[in-house]
Fold this protein.
Amino acid sequence: MPSDAANTPPFYKRVLLKLSGEALMGEQQYGVDPNVAARIAVDVREIQGLGVETAIVIGGGNIFRGLAASAKGMDRATADYMGMLATVINGLALQDALEQAGVLTRVVTAIEMRAVAEPFIRRRAIRHLEKGRVVIFAAGTGNPYFTTDTAAALRAMEIKADVILKGTKVDGIYTADPMLDKTATKYQSISYLQVLERQLRVMDATAISLCMDNALPIVVFDMRAAGSIRKVIMGEPVGTTVGA
């Protein structure tokens, strides 16, 4: 029986992992905790070892949040571009952690900055994945007014990913915020339309609509639980699946 389990192929072959910038903070109030980045790198190395092709989209909220700055009077486009640059800082930090863990990695940006990262070219990004490299997509879509959630949905479709893995601080989607409402119950699965109608804020409405139009499933799970990415990859009932 253990040998059968060991030989079980991954449920997903090519995945896009969506991380918030806050995922890199750990217990800090700001910035990047190298220990957290190293732990994420180990989890990613584990699924790479299974032959899974992995792309990552990371947010920048641990450094700068464009929407919050806009609400305080800053020009929205300027604030969003600053947020995109924050995602590049996070991408470079995660690249360093992955390479220290022995994983070949490329940072690819939607805004050209050739001294630190490659510009986004879809076919080249796919080739990196095919060669076993982790690809980190930074700078969102390269456009203001779009979130990194939308960037994740867009890039996942462009590279023909099988699923978006949304790593969060909770173990799935609940009827209400489980941190605030102790009576909140967890969904094992839920439809795109239900997420939109119930305003569950899994990802923003644009991202959910993109996934719905292209039948791209989303799995929301607790990123902090050790080995959780591997469990999702192997098709274990972890977190909440958003689908048709």
